[in-house]
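re: that complex we talked abt at group meeting.

here r the seqs, copy pasted straight from the sheet so there may be weird spacing, ignore it
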Amino acid sequence: MLTPEITKRITDAVDAAFDRQLEFTAELVRHPSLRAEEASAQDLMFTQMEARGLAMDRWQLDEETLSAHVGYGPTTVAFEDLTNVVGTYTPAGPATGRSLILNGHIDVVPTGPEDTWSRSPWDAEIKDGWMYGRGSGDMKAGLAANLFAFDALRAAGLAPAAVIHMQSVVEEECTGNGSLAALQRGYTAEAVVIPEPEENMLVRANVGVIWFKVRVSGKPTHVREMATGFNAIDAAYTVMGDLRELQDKWNADKGSHRYFEDLEHPINFNIGMISGGDWPSSVPSWCEFDVRAALYPGVTAADAWSQIEACLRDSTSGAEVSAVRSGFFSEGYVLEEGSDAEGVLASSHQEVFGSALESFTTPGYLDGRVFTLYGGIPALVYGPVSEAIHGFDERVHVESVRKVTKTIALFIAEWCGVTETR
Amino acid sequence: MLTPEITKRITDAVDAAFDRQLEFTAELVRHPSLRAEEASAQDLMFTQMEARGLAMDRWQLDEETLSAHVGYGPTTVAFEDLTNVVGTYTPAGPATGRSLILNGHIDVVPTGPEDTWSRSPWDAEIKDGWMYGRGSGDMKAGLAANLFAFDALRAAGLAPAAVIHMQSVVEEECTGNGSLAALQRGYTAEAVVIPEPEENMLVRANVGVIWFKVRVSGKPTHVREMATGFNAIDAAYTVMGDLRELQDKWNADKGSHRYFEDLEHPINFNIGMISGGDWPSSVPSWCEFDVRAALYPGVTAADAWSQIEACLRDSTSGAEVSAVRSGFFSEGYVLEEGSDAEGVLASSHQEVFGSALESFTTPGYLDGRVFTLYGGIPALVYGPVSEAIHGFDERVHVESVRKVTKTIALFIAEWCGVTETR
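got the structure back, here u go
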């Protein structure tokens, strides 16, 4: 256990640097690190980690290596544009503590129509205690929290007594291949902290996600013969209805899935994108839509996918229906209760917040599954209060970020151990 | 009335040139004259008309002039890419007959996915009595029929005794602005023949058409909070349902519209294109779709549009719904029975087909409305048997084309009168 005096030195150090932390977070937000456009933001992360004396590693994701892994989801952009950044801290003396990965993803989702934002998604303005911007919550505040929590120890005259890998990965929003590539590269540890925007709580369990693109097609005709022509847009909605029946069936089974029993609607099939037809006066012959489906922990992606394929094969639409996987092909995970890592996080959180750490189940994808399922590493997905991630006017609560940063700093000190440097 | 001997000379001349007519039709089909890409096909029409000694006129459509006309539909492509071609025949001697416009449109609709065609849409292959290809029926066979019907008189040693304007226009498939521009340029006559693919029949009445693009939008969120997020793709489908209620209401009123009483479904609202959403794992914030709506003759486009706007304003979707006009803004027309022009066509048709000319009502747009409504010119929309126009494997029946060409040739001779040139 950290002494009250050390605890205070660390949390004071977070406070002392917090303005700079916000400035850095804002700078990160101002890099629009949309998918395959993460390079400049990764440059910034690289530079910042390097300036802290970390041993730097930056590499391009490799399709061949990744695709051999059961957790791989098909990447549909050029691999040339995808690089991970990892900076490694190694203690000067013997590593007496427990090793740690501080993980975060640099990629952000599209803004949607920018005119629906009340401001630019990239200006990172702070107003009424919230920092706005695409990626502010999901999860540049978390990436900055990792970095500045690490800084706080040094500023407090302390050095972690174990190896720490600071990771900035890509592809968390679409495949999870970034964290998977980091694991495949050999980065492992005794715990991982991922400060995703989680309402100051710990994620106990989450769903797996599969992305797929459905194509519905048939024979069109002139609109004057519409009664005889197949209408792919109408048929697509029928297929969506078929998929939602499968979704309802899976939701009805929530009682048999630990940690999901009390969620109102744990399994969401989201129709996120649609396109179809070539001409207003022709009955549309094709329609494609993109689906994000969720699955419970313990259900393999392969099993879920075969149910989805069967659903599409048996579609009531009467159309030709085909589907290809287009991203995530991931299982969910459960963070089993009672780990040492969770215990340390709980005490750090209690120290900072003055209240017990709560855990919850989240029906969204998290890279935590990579570490838990394939690395045997307890994944502590824990982070600040946010609103409207993936929506308009995404924002993160500034004081929550401060407290989360303090919690992570205390966690590092307790988990890794510290030596005095003064 | 034409003598049997002259009739035979003319129809024999059509037969004699029919192989060349098919070759020329195929050449036209091999020019993919998609919207705003009609130039090379118009070059060909220009050259062919010029070679026949017609006085040539080719001009670019003009937005300012067009948009002042009540029948204008907003053009959404560059006007620079849109030119009409008209060749005018003037008799050497006094014009003793009735003047005529032979009209056809050069533009074709998109092919849709080409792999759904059994062959290239542009190879114009003839198989089992049908010529295949996008535009084969709609309406390059008709453009060629106009030209070769005109040729047949000359080959038969006859010269028309009235002015004939041979028109190849653009924009028939999207706005009708091509024929409208020709009318505005001053081209008028006592009758117009438009050999659209009409099953060897005469169009008695047709619908007007309005094109518009609907945008449905709202506030999205992360899919994990899907219950709280607005889903624009779902909302779009609700709006489509609202529009179909309006469509049903209009169809229910068919009994009060002359020539439409007996059609099963005269009013079609076609959802021809759709797009929406930015990311599979974000609840979609926007969705746009393109609608082609039909209206009865006698209903002004402005009236129909105000009903459509009210329908969208009162949408049950709970979404923000807006719409812009994106093409056709046209009224339907009726070809009143008993015109001299129809009488002449009926006798020409009887002569060639050995059966009475039938007329029918077609629930699709036709440029006939330009001449009928705004020029006071009887529009004879009459042409060959086709299948799958606007669909896959569009085709036109070769022997039907031959007969239609003969009918048009006899019509020219009877309507315009002829003088012997031998």
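couple things i noticed - DSSP finds ten helices and 19 strands in chain A. Chain A has a mean pLDDT of 95.
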